[in-house]
Amino acid sequence: MRVGFVEWPEALDPLGPDWTRLAELAGSAHIDLLVTNELPFGRWIAADPVFDRQVAQTSIDVHGAGLNMLSRLDVPAILSSRPVWANGRLANEAFVTERGALRRLHCKRYFPAEPGWFESSWYSADGDKFEAADISGVRTGVLLCTDAMFNEHARHYGRQGTDLIAIPRAAGVSTEKWLAAGKMAAIVSGSYVVSSNRIGHSGEGVSFGGAGFAYHPDGSLLAVTTASEPLLVIEVDPAVSARQRRLYPCYVPDPDFN
After folding, report:
1. Which domain holds residue 188?
2. Which end of the chain is more exposed for a tag (fewer CB within 10 A), N or C?
3. The CATH number of the domain where 43 resides is what?
């Protein structure tokens, strides 16, 4: 499977010229699965510390328009996330579209609460478990941004036989911790790991660092996106993941896994 990962601009308008350029790039890459950044459309609303229902609805609406445009891409499967109403606030829901059919995958569990990322004010978790799903024949797990900092879930995905872990994120300019999280996710799961990120500056002064990345199941870095290469592609081979899961540390028994 050819898997694409990206760095897409802050405040991406699904009806604007940036989207036209990115859509053409994705369509010409001959990929089987595209992994976007977290909540890819519209402005980053969690820069504001105070929840606003009207702003939340606007984010839902722009992602609805974005989903419509994603469905038009010449890409068989697309993994992304969107805001949905949950418990009076929003949930950050990862989903996949395959040939136009949408399937929910996972809702984000962990939310930061600091300048630029007041996500705990806007989003709530719904008790979702970290369950792998088959996407175009590849066993796939999702860690939405901060979820990836809790490495036990990557290991749990590995015990479910994942070939690929996707980490859509909206992270700042410092990439060291994110690269470390991606590397460890690969090492403990035996899976390929790909991550996409926002790039640019929000109107509220939040800076996003780009640097979408991919790791081999053995933990070696495969590629990192740049401004000149905002979309990169790797080949995911389930047979390679299966072999890696038989090696250290993946084979070590997990007493908490049923």
Report:
1. 2-244
2. C
3. 3.60.110.10
Tokens standing for 44?
């980053």
Q: Which residues contact 132 (CB under 8 A, 6 or more apart)?
A: 139, 140, 141, 157, 160, 161, 162
d(CA 163, CA 227): 28
CA proximity to 40, closest of 205, 170, 147, 172: 170
**Does the N-terminal peptide bond of residue 238 adopt cis geometry, omega within 30 degrees of 0?**
no
- With a CB cutoff of 8 Å and minimum separation 6, the contacts of 61 are none
What are the pLDDT digits (tens) for 21-72?
A: 999 999 999 999 999 999 999 999 999 999 999 999 999 999 999 999 999 9
State the Cα–Cα distance between residues 187 and 181, nearest whole angstrom: 10
Q: CB of 212 within 8 A of CB of 226?
A: no
Q: How many domains does one find in the chain?
A: 1
- The answer to whether 70 and 77 are in contact (CB under 8 A) is no
Q: Does residue 52 lie in a domain region?
A: yes
b/e code 64-83 from CB counts within 10 Å (16+ = b): eebbebbeebebbbbbbbbb
> Does 255 fall in a domain?
no
Helix or strand or coil: residue 108?
A: coil
Q: Which amino acid, residue 65?
A: A
Q: Rounded distance, CA 24 to CA 27, Å?
A: 5
55 belongs to a structural domain: yes
Q: Which helix (H) or strand (E) holds 164?
A: strand 164-168
User: Does 8 fall in a domain?
Assistant: yes
Distances in Å between the Cα of 237 and the Cα atoms of 73, 143, 201 are 24, 20, 36
